[in-house]
Amino acid sequence: MSAATARPGSARPSSRREDILREAARLFATHGFHGVSIEQLGAAVGISGPGIYRHFPSKSAILAAMLVGISERLHADGAAAVRTSRTPHDALERLITLHIAFALDEPYLITVQDRDLANLPRPDDHRVRRLQRAYVEIWASVLRQIDCRLGVAESRARAHALFGLLNSTPHSATEVDRETMAGILRDMSLRAARGDDR
To answer: I need a labelling partner for 82 at 20 to 30 A (CA). Which of 97, 99, 117, 142 fits?
Structure first.
């Protein structure tokens, strides 16, 4: 697994580095990147502020590990989901299931990505954006296979629209339990992605 936060439900104990990334995501999402001090982050994981520097050279490095890590993970998992699918429809369902799990399990990362991407150092910003474009292309390619009438631009637009729906979880997932929300997102996403093809 990459430098992103540990996957929920993993039997493997999390490392201190993963603890820092998880708590940083929560604090950055709640207070903003500039609203969180190293001392606050250290306290959240039970170490001194300066102790953070044994694991990351700076607060910006924490943000980079967080956002580069999740971008790498989504791209790799998305590519694997498509590669092991039997049909384009199967690939779409796998991509939706993958992204729902991310959106429901790690909503803090969605908030941090939306609000604090601009705070990344330039090389990391470019890397995240490149990975995200590649992830969009995975979805767009599947959508074009399902509906050959779609052009490249429209398929990308549809992929972004689907992400908007799926990434609504920081706001929408508080009303119902996880299983119900996953079902809602899956049903709505499949209907939206397939358009008239349902």
So the answer is: 117
Tally the domains of the chain: 1
CA-to-CA dists, residue 74 to 43, 69, 77, 79, angstroms: 30, 9, 5, 8
Which domain covers residue 189, as residue numbers? Answer: 59-194
Domain membership of residue 46 (yes or no) is no
CATH assignment at residue 166: 1.10.357.10
Query: Are residues 46 and 28 in contact, defined by beta-carbon separation less than 8 angstroms?
Result: no
Exposure on the CB side of residue 111, measured as CA atoms within 13 A: 19
* 117 belongs to a structural domain: yes
3-state helix, strand, coil in the chain (%, to 5): 75, 0, 25
Each residue's pLDDT expressed in tens, for the chain with a length of 198 residues: 333 333 444 445 569 999 999 999 999 999 999 999 999 999 999 999 999 999 999 999 999 999 999 999 999 999 999 999 999 999 999 999 999 999 999 999 999 999 999 999 999 999 999 999 999 999 999 999 999 999 999 999 999 999 999 998 877 767 788 899 999 999 999 999 977 544
